[in-house]
Design goal:
This protein folds into 2 domains: 39 residues; 131 residues, no CATH class. It is built from 3 helices and 6 strands, in the order ααββαββββ. 18% of the residues are buried.
Length: 180
């Protein structure tokens, strides 16, 4: 049986009027889903102070416990490490097994060298948070030289590590090392 043309048009027009708002809603929902899919997940938040403290800990563990910092073997007292507070929040510095980390500002570092002689110390040169939730850290192993010293040092160095989150944990790769 064939539907008369005028009834077909009325039914089609009625269906179109019913479906048009539904199609608009579906279009809006698809657009919203697309926008949400393009945004970072809520777990990908900007690194906070706790994250930075973890990065400092991981970096110092690699430098001192794993002995990866260039010229580690030249550090005279490996159980008492001087760490500069320049470019570093003291609250981020961890305790490491068997190592006492002595926090000194640049003036105190120089004063200690003037009194006790030249020595190697560590200094974070960079702790930069990237937009793509990466943190780049550079740690230097530098000489504190007494004002009375006559030695010109061709040693020391450092490394740069780029950290990113992997399964909720910070993972880092050394991207550069250097020696003096």
């Amino acid at each position: 049986m064939r539907v008369p043309e005028h009834l077909y048009r009325q039914v089609s027009r009625g269906l179109w009027q019913i479906l048009t708002p539904v199609r608009r809603k579906i279009g809006v929902i698809c657009c919203l889903l697309w926008l949400l899919a393009c945004q970072p997940l809520a777990t990908n938040m900007a690194p906070n102070d706790d994250d930075k403290a973890q990065i400092v800990r991981l970096t110092l563990e690699r430098a001192l416990l794993s002995r990866e910092i260039p010229d580690y073997q030249l550090i005279a007292d490996k159980s008492n490490i001087v760490l500069s507070t320049q470019h570093l929040d003291r609250a981020w510095v961890p305790e490491l097994d068997g190592i006492k980390i002595i926090l000194l500002d640049p003036k105190e570092i120089q004063s200690k060298a003037d009194q006790a002689g030249d020595y190697l110390y560590l200094q974070f040169r960079e702790l930069e948070v990237q937009e793509n939730e990466r943190i780049i850290v550079s740690l230097d192993n530098l000489w504190a030289v007494s004002k009375n010293s006559t030695v010109f040092y061709l040693s020391g160095g450092g490394f740069t590590i780029e950290y990113h989150r992997e399964n909720g944990r910070w993972v880092g790769d050394v991207t550069m090392t250097w020696i003096s």
